[in-house]
Design brief:
Blueprint (H helix, E strand, L loop, with lengths): L1 H67 L7 E7 L4 E14 L12 E13 L15 E14 L1
Antiparallel strand pairs: 1-2, 2-3, 3-4
Organism: Aquipseudomonas campi
Protein name: Type 4 fimbrial biogenesis protein PilX N-terminal domain-containing protein
InterPro entries: PilX_N_dom (IPR025746)
Length: 155
């Protein structure tokens, strides 16, 4: 009879151990799910930042090509870039100023070299409601790039 009494005491222990293991497995599954969700959001944010970065770079390239083609860029304009899932807009700002300079390549009597300096700023936003240049502000800008461009003019 003593052996039967020991078996009755151990039956409840199996239930406690199995419930504890089940609880541990549930906690592991929940933490893995949370970690996976966080990593997915981080990857999505990185992709969004990359799209904004590329849009700002495209705006700078657009401004540079305008100057290289002999066109004076508009002081404040918007470049819309269409991606498969959305349209991203970049605000292009250009400011130009003259500066006196010197050049070893300028021949004698050819005049004073003048440098035309262009300062370009591009601000890209992922905000779909920002459709004009004035609507792209510091509050909704996801990427901003600056670039300078110099032209030498001999008068």
């Amino acid at each position: 009879m003593k052996t039967l009494h020991r078996q009755n005491q151990q039956r409840g222990m199996v239930l406690v151990v199995s419930l504890t293991l089940l609880l541990l497995l549930t906690i592991l599954a929940i933490s893995a799910s949370t970690s996976s969700s966080l990593q997915e959001r981080m990857a999505s944010n990185a992709q969004e930042n990359n799209v904004a970065f590329q849009a700002a770079e495209s705006a700078l390239a657009n401004l540079s090509s305008q100057v290289e083609n002999g066109t004076t860029p508009v002081a404040d304009s918007v470049l819309a870039l269409t991606y498969p899932t959305r349209t991203v807009r970049a605000r292009m700002q250009a400011a130009s100023r003259y500066a006196e300079g010197s050049s070893l390549e300028a021949g004698e009597g050819s005049g004073t070299p003048i440098i035309l300096i262009h300062d370009f700023t591009s601000s890209a936003t992922l905000d779909a409601s920002a459709t004009t240049a004035a609507a792209i502000t510091d509050d909704n800008t996801n990427a901003r790039h600056l670039q300078g461009h110099r032209e030498r003019i001999i008068q």
